[in-house]
Design a protein that fits this description.
Layout lengths: L33 E3 L6 E3 L5 E9 L2 E8 L8 E3 L7 E6 L2 E6 L4 E6 L4 E6 L5 E2 L6 E4 L4 E5 L6 E6 L11 E4 L4 E6 L2 E6 L4 E6 L5 E2 L5 E7 L8 E8 L4 E9 L10 E3 L5 E7 L2 E6 L5 E5 L15 E4 L6 E4 L1
Length: 323
Amino acid sequence: CGRAAPAAPAAAPAPDARRPPEAAALPERARRVTLRHDPGRLALLSPRDDHLVRAVEVAPLGPGLLVDSLANPGSEPLLLGLGLVASTARFLDPTRLLAFDARAGIAALLSLDGVEEARLPCRVPPVTTGDGAALVTLDPEGRLTALDPATLGVRWSLPAPRPSPAASDPELRPGPGSRVVMAYDTGAIVVDVAARTVLFTARASDPVVSPGGRYVGEVVPAEDEASAPAWLVSITDTTRGVVVFSARAPGTVITVGMPPLAFSRDERTAAYSVDASAVHLIDLATGREQAIRTGLSARTEVAEYLTDALAFGADGDFLCGHV
């Protein structure tokens, strides 16, 4: 009888094309190179506290993000985002990380399963709108750009509104719903990303947006020749483009920051304080103001005191302040 032919050797498994070299577990040669983490550099935990992410320098591979599994301490770490010097990073969800390299002007969407999903050139770190529907950044030409948070794909780009042509790039801050605040050194602009429209231009660089996004308020110094320091308080209804409250309030001089202004969660009431002796409540439907004495002294022989924070309770019936 004939002799059976020897079995062919098993084919080598196909490489995982999804995983780029920089996203794989550290190879044998990487275990022999220098791994350096500066304690002053970025480090953060995943939302489930099961991964530790650190900005590291792996010579000779270069900079990147090292991901250690806290659930499996003996497992090999992953090196993500090779070449990125991450200045900021945050989790979009338990398994996806958004990193930004300010030096190179690049945002990267990374996955903890080792797959680098996308990179995008931009000038500022992308922020997520309050409703989670979009990421917002400035593209390399300085245009306001909305991105798909799942892919970093560009949805639209528009010329970025600026308080003046010479204004530097803003800090982007998420507001409620689809609002984003573009905070400049000389003022701020509130943009509705979903509607692609400018809602409000503020003189202050840190305007306060109400929880539902309907109202925007600001407190700025009164620039006049009056001897006593004063503040200009204004609140605008962005749905109608109408100023519903405006007042000139004598108060304490502040060298850092601005007096506090807060909105109740139901957007019926606002509150502000320009010194420690009183808190002012505003009925947003009527614009009526009511001053409530705190029982504290705004001035003594040695110092002036101010309220530096205000916050409403969940039902709007309770107001807390800090002096």
